[in-house]
Amino acid sequence: MAINKVMVIGAGQMGAGIAQVFAQxxxxxxxxxxxxxxxxxxxxxxxxxxxxxVDKERISESDKTETLNRLTPSSDLQDAQSRDFVIEAIVENxxxxxxxxxxxxxIAPKHAILATNTSSLPITEIxxxxxxxxxxxxxxxxxxxxxxKLVEIIRGLQTSDETYQVVEDMTNKLSKSPVxxxxxxxxxxxxxxxxxxxxxxxxxxxxVASVEDIDTVMKLGMNHPxxxxxxxxxxxxxxxxxxxxxxxxxFGDSKYRPCPLLRKYVKAGWLxxxxxxGFYQY
Length: 282
Ligand code: NAI
What we know:
NAD, binds 1,4-dihydronicotinamide adenine dinucleotide, N-(1-d-carboxylethyl)-l-norvaline Dehydrogenase, domain 2, 3-OHacyl-CoA_DH_NAD-bd
């Protein structure tokens, strides 16, 4: 199946990045958000990033113009009726996501594939909100989308091989590297990353080493580009806690117990870079 017409739902941090990458790769893209301000901001952010790429001579002025010409803002979910592929990047909340998928199922053409960029919610459950679970799949981009190469493609219980293949081919067209993952709490990326971050927080909590030294251990000792506590601040400590809770509940195993210090920081409103304070001050 050839996919040309794409719709991205949610014009926030992830959705705008996803829309940009699709448009840069030649797809006709609708960027949808129910909040007009968020939609405007998402479109402006894309233009800003493309202008920066022109300034740095990574793309030409005409690449930028053509990309923007392939991008159209949308504030009506009904616009999905003209699309071959829809990817959702709205708030990480199962009730809100299943409502959107149930609506999309009624609006989008029969052949359309419906994907979600969820970082932790079960694909199988989201797919069950539709009458086409074999055409529902997880397509998990990393932040910031235009920079990060990885896409986890997550099969729900009922996702068909054909749907998987179409999405894998499309990921290659976006110049990203796909990995195939089964529907399991945290998928692969967050199942590996978050316990490491949680353990770094436990090490701080138990006085093993200071914030700076924990980060230095992983940067200089393991060649990580960024220490785990810095990374946690960038991701957002509330998000880290949320994903740890998904792992803890999903596996029922105490090895995923969120560190009490992480809970305390989130309760204090120390959410990392976005709130001005996390393990570091910004
Ligand atoms: P965000 O809060 O920046 O953006 C969400 C956008 O969705 C907002 O603009 C909001 O107005 C819009 N929205 C909410 N409900 C809507 C609806 N019913 N219809 C249309 N638009 C709606 O969130 P962010 O960070 O972009 O995350 C989006 C999704 O991507 C979440 O599922 C998250 O778990 C996932 N994700 C986030 C990553 C991150 O680092 N922030 C990384 C990978 C996945």
